């Protein structure tokens, strides 16, 4: 008796709940026919005759059958329908449980087992749909994470050094410094060779007597006899002869040494100017590649993350509706099993509560977004021929060749974004640069 009272209260509460939901208010939802059957069920007597019992059992059977047909029609993949189906079956279970006369109706013999099984199967399909959808969402996450990672792979495949200055470009800078270093010694060698050569020529030390030879003649002096004069001329010629050979040998040697030294230093300057140009072009090429690579990474990464975030929002919504459908489907199966097994106790009905449904198969694992790989354009913030770049690479007196006041050629600036030379960068450089073909000055 206690049991029954409880059940009736529970049923009322369930109906009130349905009305609040705005889904299944009893007046609209339970047809007049259903209500009639319900009335019959409720007015049925515990001590009915066999005939009566049979007749009322049939009525209960008809009612159950109607609900089951309705639920079968409501079943399927639509999640809202699963919720409605759940309400119908739950209500049926509650109504039957509330009626002590129900015991005269044996559900397991009602010939509705097939219909029950169909509902259970349909709910299994709904559940399978949610699991398939979960799997699809996990695969979607995998693809999106792979796409984000691909941005980093593209960057690595570009072979551009993105976290430190390109070693190849640094090597070009070193080549240039080494060349200028070597040119210091060649410049000094040329200077000494010229000093030696000019010194030899300006201090010729021609024997004094040679001054007495007028052009094309022997020296003519009235004081001497012709013989004495000739003897003097021959003696003078001997001293000039002794002087001229070594003078000539040394002079030609010093001259060719100086010429060789000058050729060598000129060749080295040209080589160093070329090394400088190669360095500047190499730097600018690297700069363009780095900027392009970092900007490609930015675009790739931000759009891949954007896709991830937007899709994640959809997936989270889908997660919520999956849970609703999954739980409702499991509850429908639970209520139907209560009916199927003639186990219409409140304990059995309450065991079908949504809180009792195990949703662990629906666990959605949201991956975390892989971080953006480093790509550092600040490595090329200073570049040819910005003042800071030139100061660091060509004007830093801690460099041997700079301290030795070796000049460099006019810096070739990088192309700007539009592909043109940045003339305003050249002008200040021109002033500090070595004028074309002018000799290097000494300290
Ligand atoms: C059960 O059936 C008996 C006899 O048919 C009837 O007297 C009684 O009121 C019924 N009980 C309910 C709760 O409908
Ligand atoms: C229902 O029918 C089954 C099978 O005939 C029987 O075992 C069971 O006791 C019956 N239950 C009731 C409540 O009559
Ligand atoms: C649901 O999935 C399980 C396992 O994936 C499978 O065995 C079963 O046949 C499926 N049921 C339906 C109704 O699709
Ligand atoms: C990157 O470097 C590797 C090995 O040094 C080379 O095999 C590959 O072709 C390079 N890729 C590009 C795009 O330059
Ligand atoms: C240039 O020469 C100086 C002095 O010999 C030396 O200390 C320095 O390492 C050299 N620099 C390079 C780049 O070779
Ligand atoms: C060689 O040295 C001399 C003397 O310092 C200088 O005048 C001349 O310009 C130098 N030659 C070159 C090519 O630098
Ligand atoms: C998926 O939905 C369930 C039920 O609303 C919730 O408990 C769970 O936290 C959600 N999962 C994620 C990853 O948000
Ligand atoms: C009936 O329901 C109760 C409560 O959930 C459960 O413990 C019992 O096993 C069920 N009996 C059958 C035959 O399903
Ligand atoms: C006792 C009782 O209410 N019996 C009912 C059983 O069902 C028939 C109709 O099928 C009614 O006429 C009886 O009154």
From TrEMBL:
Residues 1-16 form the signal peptide. Keywords: Signal. The keyword Signal applies. It comes from the Eukaryota. This is Secreted protein.
């Amino acid at each position: 008796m206690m049991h029954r009272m409880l059940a009736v209260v529970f049923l009322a509460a369930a109906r009130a709940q349905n009305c609040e939901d705005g889904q299944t208010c009893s007046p609209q939802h339970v047809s007049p026919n259903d209500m009639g059957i319900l009335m019959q069920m409720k007015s049925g007597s515990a001590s009915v005759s066999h005939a009566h019992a049979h007749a009322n059992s049939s009525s209960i059977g008809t009612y159950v059958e109607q609900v089951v047909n309705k639920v079968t029609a409501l079943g399927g993949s639509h999640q809202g329908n699963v919720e409605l189906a759940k309400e119908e079956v739950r209500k049926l279970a509650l109504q039957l449980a509330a009626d002590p006369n129900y015991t005269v109706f044996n559900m397991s013999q009602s010939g509705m087992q097939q219909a029950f099984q169909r509902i259970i199967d349909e709910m299994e399909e709904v559940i399978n749909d949610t699991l398939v959808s979960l799997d699809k969402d996990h695969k979607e996450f995998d693809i999106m994470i792979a796409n984000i990672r691909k941005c980093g792979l593209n960057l690595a495949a570009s072979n551009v050094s993105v976290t430190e200055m390109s070693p190849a470009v640094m090597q070009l800078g070193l080549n240039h410094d080494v060349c200028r270093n070597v040119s210091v010694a060649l410049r000094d060698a040329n200077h000494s060779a010229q000093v030696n050569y000019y010194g030899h020529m300006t201090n010729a030390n021609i024997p004094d007597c040679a001054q007495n030879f007028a052009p094309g003649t022997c020296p003519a002096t009235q004081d001497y006899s012709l013989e004495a004069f000739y003897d003097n001329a021959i003696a003078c010629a001997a001293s000039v002869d002794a002087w001229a050979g070594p003078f000539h040998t040394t002079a030609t040697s010093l001259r060719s040494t100086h010429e060789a030294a000058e050729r060598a230093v000129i060749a080295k300057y040209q080589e160093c100017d070329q090394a400088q140009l190669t360095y500047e072009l190499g730097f600018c090429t690297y700069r363009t590649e780095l900027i392009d690579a970092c900007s490609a990474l930015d675009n790739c990464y931000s759009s891949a993350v954007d896709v991830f975030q937007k899709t994640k929002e959809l997936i989270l919504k889908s997660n919520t509706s999956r849970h609703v459908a999954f739980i409702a489907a499991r509850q429908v199966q639970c209520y139907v099993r209560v009916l199927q097994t003639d186990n219409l106790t409140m304990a059995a009905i309450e065991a079908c509560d949504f809180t009792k449904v195990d949703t662990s198969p629906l666990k959605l694992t949201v991956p975390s977004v892989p971080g953006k790989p480093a790509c550092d354009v600040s490595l090329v913030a200073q570049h040819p021929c910005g003042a800071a770049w030139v100061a660091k690479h060509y004007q830093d007196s801690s460099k041997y060749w700079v301290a030795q006041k070796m000049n460099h050629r006019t810096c070739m600036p990088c192309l700007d974004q539009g592909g043109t030379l940045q003339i305003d960068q050249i002008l200040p450089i021109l002033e500090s640069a070595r004028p074309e073909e002018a000799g290097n000055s000494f300290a």
